[in-house]
């Protein structure tokens, strides 16, 4: 087979490959909602951003809670640092279940060249009460739907949000 024929076959194969969703949880499109919290068709937490840039309440709270609990290691806007990897990049391959497991139980990857340790936050209500919101925020960042910084417009707080938050925080 000539180089030209091989290149033509490769181009044809690429033309028929179905694009894959940008994150490990699949298509981030909101398929349902309950009390202002959106889910994709697989039931994973997801974001909703209106055409005017208004983000759902959970994306907004996710930014605040990410900044308070995760930024010191994972850097501003989830972009990573010298201490921890970019979560914007990681969520392109990481599913919601994998994210939840890592946040809850931590992760340790030690080798001769590096010592990567993510602490377990499973007993920390400041993290676990907002883990879905943080995932939603990072998912929006990972999918390129949300830029850097604090979202400028946010949907109103859902009516039942305060009671849910109070119950979780104890």
TrEMBL record:
<keyword id="KW-0479">Metal-binding</keyword>
<keyword id="KW-0408">Iron</keyword>
<dbReference type="Pfam" id="PF13442">
    <property type="entry name" value="Cytochrome_CBB3"/>
</dbReference>
<protein>
    <submittedName>
        <fullName>Methanol metabolism-related c-type cytochrome</fullName>
    </submittedName>
</protein>
<dbReference type="InterPro" id="IPR036909">
    <property type="entry name" value="Cyt_c-like_dom_sf"/>
</dbReference>
<feature type="domain" description="Cytochrome c">
    <location>
        <begin position="38"/>
        <end position="141"/>
    </location>
</feature>
<keyword id="KW-0732">Signal</keyword>
<feature type="signal peptide">
    <location>
        <begin position="1"/>
        <end position="22"/>
    </location>
</feature>
<dbReference type="InterPro" id="IPR022411">
    <property type="entry name" value="C-typ_cyt_methanol_metab-rel"/>
</dbReference>
<dbReference type="InterPro" id="IPR009056">
    <property type="entry name" value="Cyt_c-like_dom"/>
</dbReference>
<keyword id="KW-0349">Heme</keyword>
